[in-house]
Sequence to fold (362 residues):
Amino acid sequence: MRIAFFGSSLVSSYWNGAATYYRGMIRALAGRGHQVTFFEPDAYERQQHRDIADPSWASVVVYAPRESAALQAVSQARSFDVIVKASGVGIFDELLDEAVLALKNPANLVAFWDVDAPATLDRVNADPLDSFRRLITRFDVVLTYGGGEPVVKAYERLGARQCVPVYNALDPSTHYPVACDSRFEADLGFLGNRLPDREARVDEFFLEPAARLPRMQFLLGGAGWGDKPTTRNVKYFDHVYTDDHNAFNSTPRAVINISRESMARYGFSPATRVFEAAGAAACLITDNWQGIELFLEPGREVLVANNADEVTDHLLALSPARARVVGAAARSRVMANHTYTQRAVQVERVLEGKWASTAGVA
Fold:
């Protein structure tokens, strides 16, 4: 299939947490013989903070941050077999939603890929006049970053023809164990951009344990935290480029995943950092959310915490040897069950099945 993909950015992770997900999925789809062209706007200084050059496994089209340029980019996708509009492009999302649907014809498939389904659903359910609400029924299929049955049922109630969760995973060629790097030495590291529905949970699960454990070192990475008040044992690293993610995950004694509030509430939404950390054989602590056991076994492959007390308890009890055992078990699990190659097979079956039935292909 020839797939046109409209998303935030494939080449930059700057204020773009979906980058790893896009790269893993698209690279795996390309590995299965599909041709993907990724259309992304020149916005939010992402092109000035690129992590990668244009890859060999996808074509990248960067368009100017103007409505006319966005519409011109959509016109280039007219002849593709599958046209995907992702959520959270960041500019002209409403325009792009309408424009890609206008390309629908009997020979193609138009899909919506929601990389933040909890936020989308909360927004649409709170506003009956939300412009996206009336478009949901027109997409051939809705794919989501995760969310499990709660997200599927919510989209079905809004009239989606089909909703399929496609979870984050590991690309073993990009995330793997590396030697420790002195820049990232810490007892606990957290990597994530500062966002309104994450900040209070970072306060609870990361900064509160840091305040309670002044003799331990904590590492905070991600854009936007520079003016955040912290205790002296918290080191801030600002935006961490993807080239440094393996070292960031491999060096601290443990790393923590802290879900955004909406994703924790819906459950079944493992963040990219869960699989990045597991791929690097990091000892992962995560806040508790429904469905974690589908991806990693609590107590053996991941340490689960319900609050700051339990994060603190994990750190006090965690020896370096125990951390290595948990990290190795997590890596074995994701290598066996949660790679992007496996996710690509799932996506391929959904898209090819829908395309065949929609386009009348035998």
Remarks:
- The chain has two domains: 2-169+340-359, 182-337.
- The first helix runs from residue 19 to 31.
- Residues 12 and 47 are 7 Å apart (CA to CA).
